[in-house]
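User: structure tokens for this one?
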Amino acid sequence: MIQTLVDFFSNIPSELALIFISMLPVVELRGGIVAAKLMGVSLWVGFPVCILGNMLPIPFVLIFLNKVFAFLRRFKAFSGFLDFLDRKADKNKEKVQRYELLGLFILVAIPLPGTGAWTGALVANALNIPFKKAFPAIFAGVIGAGILMSIFSYFIPSLFGY
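Assistant:
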């Protein structure tokens, strides 16, 4: 999947491609770091570019998500998708509620499927965590995920000559 995205964005500068890849829900920074490695972009360039790309949509998600959901709920065509997102948020709510902002940080920082900045913003919205508290926790989680993904994508392969 990441290679497909790298190929799709091959006609634009790699930094811009990494921003677009890192902005995508599901792929996010985790895919961006892997894409940076596949593109031959150095860690020192790829890391901050992927963080920027992953964080660009988050303020908008935190501020406008509830309004967008309320608008979309008026249309039956979106009900299945919105129910899926609600279930995803509900699944992670308890962990975040228990540990508050640390829980939000951990949810974003752990590089597993169903985690990341988009999910963190979704859960923060579901829990009505104020922007001033949610954004720094999500940002810190993205940096943590970036460090972990850099270790997996750059450092460990270099130990084995890749």
